[in-house]
Write a structure and sequence with these properties.
Pfam families: BPD_transp_1 (PF00528). Belongs to the binding-protein-dependent transport system permease family. CysTW subfamily. Keywords: Cell membrane, Membrane, Transmembrane, Transmembrane helix, Transport. This is Phosphate transport system permease protein PstA. By secondary structure, the protein is mainly alpha-helical. The chain has one domain: MetI-like (MetI-like fold). Helices cover about 75% and strands about 0% of the residues. It contains eleven helices and no strands. The radius of gyration is 23 Å and the shape is globular.
Length: about 290
C-alpha cells in the first residue's frame, strides 16, 4: 500500500470521526433547543419561579446568574491577569515556577463538585459567609482562576519577542513594555479567553449548590442598597442560579409544568453559552482587525 493511499484512508477516518462528533453535538443542542425554545417568552424570562403552581418563570434565577457571573469575573480577572503577566514576563524558568504551573494545571482539571465542597468548608463554614452570592463568587473564582491564568499566559507568550525588544530599544522599562506593547498585542486572545471563561462560569451548577445555595427569595428591585439583604445587589443573600434551578427542578420539582420549565430554562442556558462563544470569536477578531489596521 503506497503512501498516498494510506494518507487518503487516514484522512477519511479523521473526517468520519469529526463528522460523528459534530452530529452528536448538533443532535444534543438541537434536542434541547427544539424542546425548550417554544416555552421561552418574555413572561418566562422575567417572572419569578413557582414551587407548587404552573406558570412560573426564571426571572430571579437569570438575574442571579448574571450578577454572580459579574462578581466572579471582577474578582478573578485582575488576579489571573497579574498571575499570567508574572508567569509569562517575569518568572523565567526554575523548579518553583514549574511547580506553580503544574499546580495550575491540576487545579484546572479539578471536578467542579470538589471546588464546591472546598468553597462550602472554607467560605460558607469557616468564613461564616453562609449560602450567599459572595461564597458562590469566591468558589467560581477558585474554579475559573487556573483556566484564566493559563489562557492569559498563552496569549502573552504568543507575542513575538521582537515586540518586546522594540519597546526596550525605545527606552521603555520592562513594565512599560508589558503594559504598552505586549498586552495590547495579546488583547484579542486575552479578551476571548475571558469571555469563554465567563460562559463556562455561567453554566456552572455543582460548585454553586454548596456555596450560593438552592433558594431564590423574592427581591425588592426598588431597593438597590447592597447592604439590604433583600436588595438585588446584596452579596450576602442566597442566590439560586439558572443552572442550579434546572438541576433542582429535575431532581425534586413538583410543579405541574416542571418539564416545560426545565426545557425552557435549559434552552435559555444553552443559548446564553452559545452567545458567549460567538461573542468571544467576534470580539477577538474585531479587536485584532482594529489593531492591525491602526
Amino acid at each position: 500500500m503506497n503512501a498516498k493511499r494510506v494518507d487518503k484512508i487516514a484522512t477519511g477516518v479523521i473526517n468520519v470521526i469529526a463528522g460523528i462528533i459534530v452530529l452528536i453535538l448538533a443532535g444534543l443542542l438541537g434536542y434541547i433547543l427544539v424542546r425548550g425554545v417554544p416555552h421561552i417568552s418574555w413572561h418566562f424570562l422575567t417572572s419569578p419561579a413557582k414551587a407548587f403552581q404552573a406558570g412560573g418563570g426564571i426571572g430571579i434565577q437569570l438575574f442571579n446568574s448574571f450578577y454572580l457571573l459579574v462578581l466572579a469575573m471582577l474578582i478573578s480577572v485582575p488576579i489571573s491577569l497579574g498571575a499570567g503577566i508574572y508567569l509569562s514576563e517575569y518568572a523565567g524558568k526554575g523548579r518553583i515556577v514549574e511547580i506553580v504551573r503544574t499546580a495550575i494545571e491540576i487545579l484546572s482539571s479539578l471536578p467542579s463538585v470538589v471546588v464546591g465542597l472546598f468553597g462550602f468548608l472554607l467560605f460558607v463554614i469557616q468564613f461564616k459567609f453562609g449560602f450567599s452570592i459572595i461564597s458562590g463568587a469566591l468558589a467560581l473564582t477558585m474554579f475559573n482562576l487556573p483556566l484564566l491564568t493559563r489562557s492569559i499566559e498563552d496569549s502573552l507568550e504568543q507575542v513575538a519577542f521582537s515586540q518586546r525588544e522594540a519597546g526596550l530599544s525605545l527606552g521603555l522599562s520592562r513594565w512599560e513594555t508589558v503594559i504598552h506593547v505586549v498586552i495590547p498585542e495579546a488583547l484579542p486572545g486575552i479578551i476571548s479567553g475571558m469571555i469563554l471563561g465567563a460562559g463556562r462560569v455561567f453554566g456552572e451548577a455543582a460548585a454553586l449548590i454548596y456555596t450560593a445555595g438552592q433558594s431564590a427569595p423574592a427581591l425588592n428591585f426598588a431597593d438597590w442598597n447592597p447592604f439590604d439583604i433583600q436588595s438585588p445587589l446584596s452579596p450576602m443573600r442566597p442566590a439560586e442560579t439558572l443552572a442550579v434551578h434546572i438541576w433542582k427542578i429535575n431532581a425534586e420539582g413538583i410543579q405541574p409544568d416542571a418539564s416545560a420549565v426545565s426545557a425552557g430554562a435549559s434552552a435559555v442556558l444553552i443559548i446564553v453559552v452559545l452567545l458567549f462563544n460567538f461573542l468571544a470569536r467576534r470580539v477577538g477578531t474585531f479587536i485584532y482587525r482594529k489593531m492591525t489596521a491602526a
